[in-house]
């Protein structure tokens, strides 16, 4: 048990991320209404609340099912590794089956005995010593009885009875619209202590689940909507982006980028919990830096995770081999894991949870992501920003050094949404640019930002050879490189013949 920032003691729900936005959990001994449209995750939330109570807190629970027969409910969750059937068999969770089926020849059923229901619940609570109760889903009662006011009145009596028992209760009910009125049947009138809204709207041809604690009477909680996912194995997980506290101490140790000259420009390399953004046009050398970054890990016997969203594994391995980086050998040695995905059709919340699972399962010391651009182009601005914040936090919490890449649309550079949203939370930003000179196109590099460290601010030319990247001296002949509008500069400007102007789109 715990106390939030204010109000009653809390009962941790045991649902990842939820207790963080609930300031510690559900108000102890009270009832909370969980509402949502069909398929939003209400029953998953409710059953997970009971299962987590047993596994994490040793608290038994009672599930009152109004819609599904007990055997159907157990079978529905049999594919999840929760062991619901075992918990029922062991007497840790009891299902009170009051599922009702309407007679096809009549519009409604006869009177429902709520008094008898309360007695059944009370006996089950006493048998198990239960501390958690779920009513799922009370909305089905209103579809079967004309007297909605009477149903609400009797449900209020049941809720009051549960409060006298000292149990913490979750009540689920369906609503029609994602952003319409909260309750479909006015249930919030009797579940006065808390209202939790689950939403599953369609955005840019994708479903995006969110959860909002609308109220906890007399208790604090975080405001606003928070995304969540439902994983077939782990269940419901809330991603509390804006509730993340930036209070972790920063690391002072560094690791190599894999390019010695770039290490020197960065003041000694990348911090062990740092995130470096490498931004540039197509073909400028971003994937090369990624390859050398992960090679620096497995050359020291450390694991690296490489996430690619634009190339398949075979292309990536082939390209890296041309620079002398043997990714396939590192994979065989168990020091590298390549995850190639095309995430256009999946939500960023689902992608973030998958990346977290890969990180926790493989245990890398470095993570490289190539590239963020495909996510920028297929997602809305807010989910994209939240994904980057969530991923960055995940890596920093685990002291993992990371390199993210971003592809600019113009050959000479120019700001993109990725740069705008990622550069502010990145510890280092490296810009790659093309420079047009008489008879040739040259490449240039600069370290635009290196948080917490002095660094080389010059713009340097680099070349790509059989052994990777070689950084040369400062490029003093041009200016305007950062904005993508290059003009000749210096005493030899007339010899260059470089015209002012922005390069074309790539």
In short:
With 506 residues, the protein is α/β, with parallel strands linked by helices. The protein is 30% helix and 26% strand.
Give the strand tally: 27
Q: Residue ranges: pLDDT <50 for 5 or more in a row?
A: 101-107, 493-506
Radius of gyration: 28 Å
Class per helix and strand makeup: alpha/beta
Give a short account of the largest sheet: 9 strands, mixed
Mean pLDDT: 85
List the helices and strands and how they pair.
Blueprint lengths: L1 E2 L5 E3 L6 H4 L4 E2 L3 E6 L5 H16 L3 E5 L4 H7 L7 H6 L3 E5 L16 H15 L3 E5 L2 H6 L3 H18 L2 E7 L19 E6 L2 E2 L2 E2 L2 E7 L8 E7 L3 E4 L15 E2 L4 H6 L4 E2 L3 E6 L5 H13 L5 E5 L4 H9 L5 H6 L3 E5 L7 H15 L3 E5 L2 H6 L2 H17 L3 E7 L9 H6 L5 E10 L2 E11 L9 E6 L2 E7 L3 E2 L7 E2 L4 H4 L10
Parallel strand pairs: 4-8, 4-9, 5-6, 5-7, 7-8, 17-21, 17-22, 18-19, 18-20, 20-21
Antiparallel strand pairs: 1-2, 2-3, 9-12, 10-11, 12-13, 13-14, 15-16, 22-23, 23-24, 24-25, 26-27
Helix pairs in contact: 5-7, 12-14
């Amino acid at each position: 048990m715990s106390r939030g920032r204010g109000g009653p003691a809390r009962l941790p729900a045991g649902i990842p991320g939820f207790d963080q936005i609930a300031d510690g959990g559900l108000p102890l001994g009270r009832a909370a209404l969980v509402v949502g449209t069909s398929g939003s995750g209400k029953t998953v939330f409710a059953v997970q609340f009971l299962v987590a109570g047993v596994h994490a807190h040793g608290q038994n629970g009672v599930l009152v099912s109004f819609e599904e027969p007990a055997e159907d409910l157990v079978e529905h969750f049999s594919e999840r590794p929760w062991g619901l059937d075992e918990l029922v068999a062991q007497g840790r969770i009891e299902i009170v089956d009051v599922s009702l089926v309407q007679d096809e020849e009549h519009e409604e059923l006869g009177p429902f005995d709520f008094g008898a229901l309360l007695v059944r619940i009370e006996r089950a609570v006493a048998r198990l010593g239960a501390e958690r109760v779920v009513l799922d889903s009370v909305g089905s009662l209103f579809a079967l009885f004309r007297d909605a006011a009477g149903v609400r009145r009797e449900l209020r009596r049941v809720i009051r009875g549960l409060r006298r028992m000292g149990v913490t209760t979750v009540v689920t009910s369906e609503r029609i619209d994602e952003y319409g009125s909260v309750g479909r049947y006015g249930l919030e009138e009797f579940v006065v202590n808390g209202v939790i809204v689950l939403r599953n709207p369609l955005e840019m041809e994708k479903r995006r689940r969110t959860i909002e604690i609308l109220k906890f009477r007399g208790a604090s909680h975080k405001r606003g909507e928070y995304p969540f996912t439902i994983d077939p194995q782990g269940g419901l997980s809330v991603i509390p982006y804006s509730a993340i506290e930036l209070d972790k101490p920063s690391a002072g140790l560094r690791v190599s980028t894999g390019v010695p000259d770039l290490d020197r420009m960065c003041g000694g390399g990348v911090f062990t919990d740092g995130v470096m953004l490498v931004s540039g046009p197509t073909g400028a050398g971003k994937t090369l830096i990624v390859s050398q970054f992960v090679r620096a890990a497995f050359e020291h016997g450390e694991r690296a995770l490489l996430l690619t969203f634009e190339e398949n594994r075979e292309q990536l391995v082939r390209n890296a081999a041309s620079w002398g980086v043997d990714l396939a050998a590192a994979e065989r040695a168990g020091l590298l894991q390549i995850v190639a995905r095309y995430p256009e059709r999946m939500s960023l919340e689902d992608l973030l949870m998958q990346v977290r699972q890969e990180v926790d399962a493989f245990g890398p010391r470095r993570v490289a992501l190539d590239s963020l651009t495909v996510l920028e182009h297929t997602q809305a601005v807010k989910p994209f920003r939240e994904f980057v914040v969530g991923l960055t936090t995940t890596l920093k919490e685990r002291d993992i050094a990371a390199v993210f890449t971003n592809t600019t649309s113009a050959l000479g550079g120019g700001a993109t949404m990725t740069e705008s949203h990622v550069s502010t939370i990145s510890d280092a930003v490296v810009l790659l640019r093309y420079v047009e000179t008489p008879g040739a196109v040259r490449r240039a590099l600069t370290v635009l930002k290196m948080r917490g460290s002095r660094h080389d601010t010059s713009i340097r030319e680099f070349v790509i050879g059989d052994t990777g990247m070689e950084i040369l001296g400062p490029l003093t002949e041009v200016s305007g490189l950062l904005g993508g509008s290059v003009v000749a500069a210096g005493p030899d400007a007339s010899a260059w013949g470089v015209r002012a102007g922005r390069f074309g789109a790539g």
